[in-house]
Amino acid sequence: MKNKLTLLLLLFFCSHGISAKVMKTMNEPDSAYLFAYATDKNTHHNGLHFAWSIDGWNTWYAIGPEHRFLGSDYGTWGPQKRMLDPVVFQDKDGLWRCLFSVNEKDGVVANASSADLINWRPQSYPILTTAGNCGAIEVGYSTPKDEYCISWVSKTGTQQGVYGTTTKDFHSFTPVIELRDELYRINQRVRLLVDGKYQTGTIHKVSWQTIDELIKAHKMADYKRILHSEKMADDPTRFASLKPVQASITINPEQSKSISDMLIGIFFEDINYAADGGLYAELVQNRDFEYDPSDKKGSDPQWNSTKAWSLQGDAAAFTIDTINPIHANNPHYALLHVERVGAALVNEGFDGIPVKAGDKYIFSLFARNPQGKGGEVRVRVIDAQGKSCGEATVKCTSSTWKKQEVVITATRTATNATLELMPQSTGTLHFDMISLFPQKTFKGHRNGLRPDLAQTLADMKPRFIRFPGGCVAHGDGLDNMYRWKNTIGALEARKPQRNIWNYHQTAGLGYFEYFQFCEDIGAEPLPVLPAGVPCQNSSHGGHGQQCGIPMSEMQDYIQEVLDLIEWANGDAKSTWGKKRAEAGHPKPFNLKYIGIGNEDLISDVFEERYAMICKAVQAKYPEMIIIGTVGPFYEGSDYEEGWRIATELGLQMVDEHYYESPGWYIHNQQYYDRYDRSKPKVYLGEYAAHLPGRPSNIETSLAEALHLANVERNGDVVSLTSYAPLLAKEGNTQWTPDLIYFNNTEVKPTVDYYVQMLYGQNAGDTYIPSRMSLSDQSSAVTKRMVTSVVRDSRTGDYIVKMVNLLPVAVKTKLDLKPLGALAAEATYTVLSGRPNDKLAKPVTGTVSISDTLEGEVPAYSFCVLRVKSLR
Prior knowledge:
Layout: H1 2-15, H2 20-27, E1 31-37, E2 49-53, E3 61-62, E4 84-90, E5 96-101, E6 109-114, E7 135-142, E8 147-156, E9 159-167, E10 177-178, E11 190-194, E12 197-207, H3 208-228, H4 235-238, E13 245-251, E14 257-258, E15 266-267, E16 309-312, E17 316-321, E18 333-338, E19 344-347, E20 353-355, E21 360-368, E22 376-382, E23 388-395, E24 402-409, E25 414-423, E26 427-438, H5 451-458, E27 464-467, H6 471-474, E28 497-499, E29 503-505, H7 511-521, E30 524-529, H8 554-569, H9 575-582, E31 593-596, H10 604-620, E32 625-629, H11 637-649, E33 653-660, H12 662-666, E34 681-689, H13 698-713, E35 718-721, E36 727-729, E37 740-742, E38 747-749, H14 751-761, E39 766-767, E40 770-774, H15 779-782, E41 785-792, E42 797-804, E43 810-815, E44 825-832, E45 843-848, E46 852-857, E47 861-868
Parallel strand pairs: 13-43, 15-27, 27-30, 30-31, 31-32, 32-33, 33-34, 34-35, 36-37
Antiparallel strand pairs: 1-2, 1-12, 2-3, 4-5, 5-6, 7-8, 8-9, 9-10, 11-12, 13-40, 14-39, 16-19, 17-18, 18-26, 19-25, 20-25, 21-24, 21-26, 22-23, 22-25, 28-29, 37-38, 39-41, 41-42, 42-47, 43-46, 44-45, 44-47
Helix pairs in contact: 8-9, 8-10, 13-14
């Protein structure tokens, strides 16, 4: 009977012009009850959930049921980022707030706010007590006093007490006191049965529209998740009925527009041993004896000042001292005491030392001889079979630190050699900064770069290089922030430090070397400096939350940023320009770009310092292009707040980051078409197409090629892009996938690399719209065949890029007549393979052309046609 009545009502409303949507709204309640809670699943990492009920008691329907509307951003990844005991309430102004505990030890009450329970502003983490944690949080409000009381239970050992504070704005708080009586409590938590399990949370009576919007938000997120999870492995089913596809492409030069000629660059970060043991050509590991257990957070007891070193032979001792170092920035050095000649100090290198027969290697060290006699040391490179690959002798006779240097010519090739230092007399010698450096570096620079890796990067034709990171830049706590001044000057005076990715960085590859490499390959330098705050995921300093340089020290830090610009661009007679000249580069580097911040939490702590730095640079160097930060994702509170602040500060550009699935790139092709052209330009500083647990392959590379085609179309708003991460040493990765893998003797570019290379080598500065008509107009097909046409004004060449993500070839008819007189022959490059192909490489040839070019774009391929204009 009920179903009949519903049908009759539906017919009645439809016949009278009343839509089913209106009827549905009329049948819904005006209000219902909302339950806000967090579960203990995944050790409290799942965040804030909602459930709804009509009566607020008997039956509760979880929204999701596991959909997370808010997650904790407190602390490091992994064991932290937890949400316990959330309390959700509306403040006196109608703003929703969520307060929660972050763990069982820190005296922090996390605070987030939202107008709609869906979009949350950046979280803050006031430390309210150092005497225990803040658990079982309750919140109350006093109308007469116009203040809130936050109370909690603190546990310290076996002691437990109830404590509280008051606040008017959730930014400043009164001193914490122990509570004996309840204070105007209004948000007492209750236990309710949701999905068969009791949960603790808070109940609120809200409009049905509020609940409906939450349900829609979950459904939209679920819909996007399904779209973004599409994989080419499903293509045989998805395109089982697909017929051969034809494409007709018409080019329209009349609607051309100028685009950035800086689109393709590279982003270098010292992750995956990209610097020491990688791009930086030094062959000795722990040359400065500065490795420390803290580099790896104490996880490796063998990681200390003697790491990679060993003593061979009897009647000898190898120890570490700090009494009288070469420089305060390098306090540790080695003492080798020999009682009988034959003992040797041996270094294993970075997974071995590679040498090539006929090549020359510069051996150097700082030595001190307390006895003032003897001191001759034989230096040998020994292969895995114990055979010498080259040797020399140095004399260490000075009673004070003195640098010794000699060239060793390799007599045989070895991939896994060791370096051996054997004193030829008894006594004690002090050693530091022991180095074996190939003479053959990129462009022949002393203290330079590994040539094969550097050339692989140069082959991409990058227009800029961003350095020194990523997360390396803002560091793990205040003491770990990357300070550029520590990385210039004499190597023994540079300050090594722990790498945020849990190893050691010598700073041998420092700011001078970065700028020099940029100059060598014709790329603009783009240094990124901390915004006065370390990484919000820090585990050192700041109690697991984002902290900031004390305001009393901020002017000194701002001067440090300004000094960098003077060092790079100042006259050789200026204070910092002189230091650059003394390093061997009297001419300015002509720095144009500077990044401030790296995917930071856009908190009050961040915003205050960030604005101070940006305004100071704008005031002294108004020509400098400042690139701001908008967080680690393409949406969310950091993204929105970052854009707001950058717009208000009048910054020229912002740095966007996102790592997404191939499906995301397929279904977000209009992402940049919607951007406001009057706001700051975009630097897409970190991006990649990721398949969880799988390496780069044709599927990921074509998704990135597709995205770059759409970026070229929006090259008037997107100015720069760089894939990340760039380099990874096999067996030493903290992040995958990466663009280029390598070991001590081989460089292994991925298929993703070849997409970047083809875009870099075929960049343009004018975008020429084109219209493609496909024989199959279904959305699944049209989203997987994309064309981009650009012109390079330096050469006059026209470049047509075509990306085919379909499992079938597309027969194309390309009308070239609108481009005018063209050369009779063009170059044609194709990168193609099966979706899981990890070893595909581009193939290049030539093709004859006329007004119309007919051909075929292979299945799963990226094709580049380059033709010269005769005009």
